[in-house]
Amino acid sequence: MNRDASTPGGMPHQGSGTERQGTGRNRESVPQQGKRHYRAGCDERDRPELKVFTPAEAAALLKVPESWLRKRASARQVPCTFIGKHLRFSSSDLEQIIRDGHRDPVTGSPRARRTAT
Questions:
Q1: SS3 31
Q2: What is the rounded distance in angstroms from the CA atom of residue 35 to the CA atom of residue 103?
Q3: Residue 111 lies in a domain
Q4: Integer Cα distance of 11 and 9 in angstroms
Q5: What is the C-alpha to C-alpha distance for residues 13 and 9, in angstroms, rounded to an integer?
Q6: Between 20 and 30 A from 65 (CA), which of 20, 48, 79, 113?
Q7: What is the pLDDT of residue 66?
Q8: What is the pLDDT of residue 107?
């Protein structure tokens, strides 16, 4: 009997079928799939990268308090996206918030200053 192929008690080792057999494949040889984008009627080259942010991430990008952003979103005063019940902000939502917040400078005649008499 060959002791190399046996268990410590001297019995031949029988595989239970649960141990991993070498299949000749290693993880490095499996090609990685790229991200897939699904949108009907849109060519992949023309599509901008879709990014979605949590309220905390969006608030940090906009440099505003998260509570301010959540309050405005719940009142529908800023664009937002709901994925199921989760509040999220797309990159286009954030761009729109910035555009909507833009104010042109006030131009015209300067205010008359009071002079001390």
A1: coil
A2: 39
A3: no
A4: 6
A5: 10
A6: 48
A7: 97
A8: 83
Give the CA count within 13 Å in the CB-facing half-sphere of 55.
16
Indicate the pTM of the whole model: 0.51
Tallying the residues shown for the chain, one arrives at 117
CATH number, residue 65: 1.10.1660
**Residue-number span of the structural domain to which 79 is assigned:** 47-101
CA R_g for the chain: 31
Residues of the chain short of pLDDT 70, as ranges, are: 1-47, 109-117
Domain count, the chain: 1
In a domain, 26, yes or no: no
Helix H or strand E segment including 81: strand 81-83
Per the domain annotation, does 67 fall within a domain? yes
Phi and psi at residue 51, to the nearest 5°: -125, 140
Would 80 be classed as within a structural domain? yes
